[in-house]
Amino acid sequence: MAGFLEQVLVGDYLSRHVPEACRRLADIAFSGDGEPTSAREFPEVLQVSARVMESFGILGKLPVRLITNGSFMHRDEVKRGLMNLAAMAGEVWFKVDRGDPEGMLSINQSRIPVERVVANLRDCAERVPTWVQSCWFAWDGQAPGKEARQAYLELLSQVADVVKGVHLYGLARPSQQPEAGRLGRLSGAELENWGRCIEKETGISVVVSP
Question: What local confidence, expressed as pLDDT, does residue 24 receive?
Answer without folding.
Answer: 92
